[in-house]
Design brief:
- The complex is a heterodimer of chains A (405) and B (247).
- In chain A, the strands form 2 sheets. A 10-stranded mixed sheet of chain A has the order 2-1-5-7-9-11-13-15-17-19, covered by helices on one side. A 9-stranded mixed sheet of chain A has the order 3-4-6-8-10-12-14-16-18.
- In chain A, β1 (63-68) and β2 form a beta hairpin.
- Chain A folds into 2 domains: 4-353, no CATH class; 354-405, no CATH class.
- Chain A has helices at 4-20, 36-41, 88-94, 96-102, 112-120, 350-357, 363-379, 385-398, and strands at 63-68, 71-72, 84-87, 125-129, 139-144, 150-159, 164-172, 180-189, 194-202, 208-217, 222-229, 234-243, 248-257, 262-271, 277-286, 291-300, 308-317, 323-332, 338-346.
- Chain A is α/β, with parallel strands linked by helices and 405 residues long.
- Chain B is 36% helix and 29% strand.
- Chain B has 8 helices and 12 strands.
- In chain B, β9, α6 (178-191) and β10 (197-202) form a beta-alpha-beta unit.
- In chain B, α5 packs parallel to α6.
- The chains are: A alpha/beta (405), B alpha/beta (247).
- The interface between A and B is medium-sized, with 24 and 30 residues.
Chain lengths: 405, 247
């Protein structure tokens, strides 16, 4: 496809990636996560395969948009009608002007994974929800990985003023093979629009995952993100949002690592204008030799007076070999703001374990119950009942005695 | 039912129980009274299987079995129940789930099937009502934000659900106002049965006005120094504990 504006951007990204490669751990944002194993795998970009043998995609009543190895599969999808929704390749033909005006605009700072994505994305999702339109059912985006390869997808989501929608991003693999998901989304939430985005990362146990979501929130726009990092061998999630006047941003997260999983979560909330509100709450549970990372930064620009911001990160370490690096940061240049942050790192409470044992519950079950309760606070924040049940059941597979089915 | 013989227990390097003897038969109510620091709570905790206590001598036999060999959860399943002096708050775990999980653990141990969901709800609601507790408590996190009286009532609710054989009440009256004390005592009295025994550990005689013991023992400096009937409690209330230690 000869679209010169895009070719230019892709060529620049390609040059940049050839220079730097995937991020090195001497970069501040990558100091806790070593991704050198990915380069050593020498993955190539996944190819389109004609025949895929999935009978149906379980998605309940939600609309769904399905990718297999980074390519949109219309035959597996079910799309709503009153909004513009198509693959990014179709958008290049049919919505070129709008796409050009937004593409690469939400990303203010790149790194190797983003550059690679820009240079190599195979496909992606393009959604445009017009002014005042409310999408009544959630739209589920399902990424299915089957090839031992890199799966780069690029997404652009645009909500015009007063629009409202919920999106669910699922990352799954039916196999245990190694691959790299590389998914980058640019999200534009218009004036007074309201977008809730759920991400449920259940990649296979040998998978690498990079997922970046870069958000622009116009005046009074509301953006809520729920991030469940459950699968993969190594995963890094970036969520960056820029808030205009009186915009509201809520970020919730749960990372659940066991064995030798490495789960890195980086968030940036940039309050650029006055009266913004942000709430961030991330919880981590790390067992065995798992390693969790939380890097949360809230920036309040000089102009962003009356910003109201809170960030919390709570971690539960279930084994002596599990590790957490947590780095909450407030960077405040305005003088009239309300900002707070807190971090806890702890273990299960011995008194609580004994209390449950004294009621006849064995030690393993008691620990499951307490761990499940810790995690379930984040699951309870999901407002789509079918999704809440699905994540609840995923948790139960990790802590089988944790709650009533 | 319970036979404690020459029990000696250390906490750290300090000997707390120094040769305690006690025998409790089915259906009896025993009150254990004594000054602070005598070892009353240590006795409750050792019976329930809490860690951090080193049994250095003696034995505890429960229904013919060596109680000290059993982990805490097995003791609970075998019918030993401790109503805690300070029940813990457990965020995120509902009362109703704890009650169901506990009841099923006990039932499984006895070779019974899991309780039917409807039967369970009917039962738990009836017991809740009997303790003058709002049903809403069932769906709140265990003890979280409960008042002192509510926590103690919640302990009795658990006891009523699990129908233990040996109930140990550790300072159950502490922190209760007179109304809450009456409700808790009514709950305990309703559970009195031929095959169920109680050990009430208490500093004050007040609880014994509502739950009449068959035997009263005075625990001082790690031993039972005096035993008698209900009238001994009154004597202690009048004279305090000083005269015993001097004797």
């Amino acid at each position: 496809m000869s679209i010169s504006w895009l070719n230019d951007i892709r060529q620049q990204a390609k040059n940049q990636f050839e220079k730097t490669g995937f991020p090195a751990s001497n970069l501040e944002d990558w100091r806790y996560t070593n991704v050198s194993a990915i380069a050593k795998k020498e993955f190539s970009v996944a190819k389109f395969v004609e025949d895929v043998d999935f009978d149906a995609v379980e998605s309940g009543s939600a609309f769904h948009f399905v990718f297999v190895d980074g390519y949109f599969r219309e035959e597996l999808s079910n799309l709503p009608e009153k909004i513009t929704i198509c693959s990014i390749n179709d958008a290049l033909k049919n919505h070129a002007d709008l796409l050009q005006s937004k593409f690469n605009q939400a990303i203010k700072q790149t790194h190797g994974f983003i550059d690679f994505n820009t240079a190599n994305f195979t496909d992606g999702l393009f959604v445009h929800i017009a002014k005042n339109v409310v999408l009544e059912k959630p739209l589920q985006i399902i990424h299915i990985a089957t090839q031992e390869a890199i799966l780069p997808t690029r997404h652009v989501v645009i909500l015009d003023a007063n629009a409202k929608a919920s999106l669910i991003e699922m990352f799954v693999s039916p196999e245990k093979h190694a691959y790299l998901t590389n998914s980058v989304a640019e999200v534009f939430v218009g004036e007074n629009a309201n977008l809730t985005l759920y991400k449920v990362q259940q990649e296979g146990e040998n998978a690498y995952h990079f997922g970046g979501t870069y958000v622009q929130q116009a005046d009074n726009a509301r953006f809520t993100h729920h991030n469940f990092a459950l699968g993969s061998l190594l995963a890094r999630s970036d969520i960056v949002s820029d808030l205009e006047t009186a915009a509201e941003c809520e970020l919730n997260g749960l990372y659940l690592g066991s064995q030798n999983q490495h789960l890195d979560n980086l968030t940036r909330i940039n309050h650029l204008q006055p009266h913004g509100i942000s709430r961030e709450f991330y919880k981590g549970i790390l067992n065995d030799q798992a390693h969790g990372v939380f890097q949360g930064r809230i920036l309040v620009a000089e102009n962003a007076q009356n910003t109201d911001s809170q960030m919390n990160n709570c971690n539960l370490l279930l084994s002596n070999e599990a590790e957490i690096d947590t780095k909450p940061q407030l960077e405040i240049y305005a003088d009239d703001v309300k900002c707070a942050h807190g971090v806890t790192v702890g273990q299960l409470d011995e008194k609580s374990i004994f209390y449950l044992q004294s009621r006849g519950i064995d030690e393993v079950s008691a620990k499951h119950i307490l761990t499940f309760a810790f995690a379930n606070e984040m699951v309870d924040k999901i407002t789509i009942p079918s999704l809440r049940d699905a994540v609840f059941n995923l948790l139960l597979t990790r802590f089988p005695e944790g709650a009533e089915r | 039912m319970l036979k404690i013989k020459d029990l000696t227990v250390n906490v750290g390097n300090k000997e707390i129980l120094k040769g305690l003897n006690l025998e409790v038969n089915a259906g009896e109510i025993h009150a254990i009274m004594g000054p602070n620091g005598a070892g009353k709570s240590t006795l409750s905790h050792v019976l329930s299987g809490k860690s951090g206590y080193e049994v250095t001598g003696g034995s505890i036999t429960y229904n013919g079995k060596d109680l000290l060999e059993m982990p805490a959860e097995i003791r609970a399943r075998e019918g030993v129940f401790l109503a805690f002096q300070y029940p813990v708050e457990i965020a995120g775990v509902t009362n109703v789930y704890l009650l169901k999980a506990a009841l099923n653990a006990v039932r499984k141990h006895k070779g019974l099937s899991e309780v039917d969901a409807m039967d369970f709800l009917t039962l738990v609601k009836a017991k809740t009502k009997a303790l003058e507790m709002d049903e809403k408590f069932l769906y709140r996190a265990v003890n979280e934000g409960f008042s002192g009286g509510e926590k103690k009532r919640n302990e009795i609710l658990q006891m009523a659900m699990l129908e233990p054989q040996l109930c140990i009440l550790d300072e159950t009256d502490s922190g209760l106002d007179i109304d809450a004390l009456r409700i808790v005592a009514d709950g305990v009295n309703a559970l009195r049965a031929e095959n169920r025994s109680f050990i009430m550990v208490t500093h004050y005689q007040r609880l014994l006005d509502y739950i009449k013991p068959d035997f009263v023992h005075v625990l001082a400096d790690g031993k039972i120094v005096k035993s008698g009937g209900a009238e001994l409690a009154l004597e202690l209330e009048e004279k305090g504990y000083g005269w015993l230690e001097q004797a």
